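Predict fold of Fibronectin type-III domain-containing protein; 241 aa.
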Amino acid sequence: MKKTTITYCLLTSLLGLTSTVQAAISAYSYDENTRLTTAVQDQVSSYDYVYDSMGNQLVKYILPDQSSYTAPELEITYPEELSKPINPDHPTLSWDIGEIATPVVFDLYFGEENPPKLYRKGLTVTELKTEHLKSNTKYYWKVVAIDQHNQVIEETKIVELKTLNTPPNEPVLVAFDKHKNTLSWKLPEQQDPDPNDEIAAYDVYLSEIGQPLQLIAENIADTNIKLTKILNQIRVINGAL
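Predicted 3D structure, encoded as tokens:
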């Protein structure tokens, strides 16, 4: 992070028997957005500021002795369930750092690219609900922990996250036209479980009553099919891919 430091030195003479000079030194540090991050007065008191993703000031941390500060040690861990394929419907990314007294914020990197780009900055919580993700897709993410001095104190490795393939709603058989010897079907009116997905094709299984189902057509783009064999009584299962 780019920082700009400005130091002021004020010299004042005191009236008395002995002429003395006192120096009151203040140093101010700013980030790339010209926001105050650190103010040091007389090299003794340090005022540190951290901002969330909306630009709100979150933490004001005072150290009586600047030289006594030691960056905290922490380990960022992920829950076991995120190592397995997850439901793409607004999943929650979460992590844990244990108990720590020092204020910490997090930058979350997430996306389909590897390495992932910055997704959220200045998080004060250890979880985030994402938008609806693509099904059957690989994502990558990592978390960076930053202390009140805007120093990176921990950064995880890039982790792979895979989403499940969300199947569409089951199609509904509309009609069997005995005269034209055709079958037709449609999708239910309710919204598809995966708004980012679309039906690619249909497989059609058919058999006479009492007989095992057999695949009679696959990768059908339309919602109807003309049978090559005339059947009076049939049992049909039509599945969407």
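The CA atoms of residues 44 and 103 lie 20 Å apart.
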